[in-house]
Amino acid sequence: MTTVVVEADGGSRGNPGPAGYGAVVFDVDHRTVLAERHASIGRATNNVAEYKGLIAGLAAAAELGADAVHVRMDSKLVVEQMSGRWQVKHPDMIPLAAQARELAGRFRSVDFTWIPRAENAYADRLANAAMDAAAQAPLDTVAGTEPPPAVGTSPGTEATSVPDPAVPASPGWTGAVGAPARLLLLRHGQTTLSVERRYSGRGNPELTELGRDQAVAAAQRLGARGGISAVLSSPLGRARETAAAAADALDLPVTVHDGLIETDFGDWEGLTFAEAARRDPEVHRRWLGDTSVRPPNGESFDEVAKRIAAVRDDLLTDYAGSTVLVVSHVTPIKTFLQMALDSGPALLYRLHLDLASLSIAEFYPDGGSSVRLVNDTSHL
After folding, report:
1. Does the annotation count 188 as an active-site position?
2. Which fold would CATH assign to domain 3-161?
């Protein structure tokens, strides 16, 4: 039995925009390139390009006479849909998924594995070369690097050793290199406690009618934007309901991450600012200026920061090079922004975030970070 490894990737500059795919077939030991494919596909979305890359890789494996294929991709959407765990709902994806399944059915066995983008370097570079051609623009290269050679382009061509791993992206203003995890940070919609300006931490008030409208408006914006690989949510109902609206628009499931939960305000839960100040005047006064101070039976902002740092590390590992929607609450979102800006604790007290507002923070594999958007409510 001949077993091969197919790695595929696709992308779009603008989503939708100039798009292309890349696919490479390795021997079972992942040491020798047997074939590669890459092509521009005009104007398309990321997900269309990802499927095109998979189809090209499976077709190349069939041409090589393989009867077992291990597919590795950094598109969680394609991997989960091809594995049968996620439904294919988007009309653009349905015929592509059917074509990929028809090709997969020609092999004795096919399995699909999600890998981080950093492990999909060869196909990623091919896809980027195709996108550059689609945009009729020169390749963006780092000094001293070149796009991969066109090796093994058809059965019978001479195989070559696997080239050096991923070429990092060109550094931007911050000097950070590599492909960042881009976090679209969406605050949940309105609840009754937010209307009354009460501390709302681990309580679980539902969205108001306006809150549901806010969630739908945000979902429409995000659905039109596209290019989002996953939807993550706090476990609390107001965040999950907001996330569900966006997930429906994006044809993605909601993944709950417990670390995205709001601050535990302890005995102040449900109280107004004035009520908490009257109840515990000294603690409340110190809490307003010292991130190590806990509300009675609650959680300090320092403890929140430690928790969010662990979430950030999880996301950077699981979604490097991807755009992820994170639906959460005021303090976790402020903390992500504080970390991305490498700023002091004053940001937590001075930054205002509206209900259903969108912010964007990027975290790079080399430790760099940047903030692209803060408290945008243009969709409301």
Report:
1. yes
2. Nucleotidyltransferase; domain 5 (3.30.420)
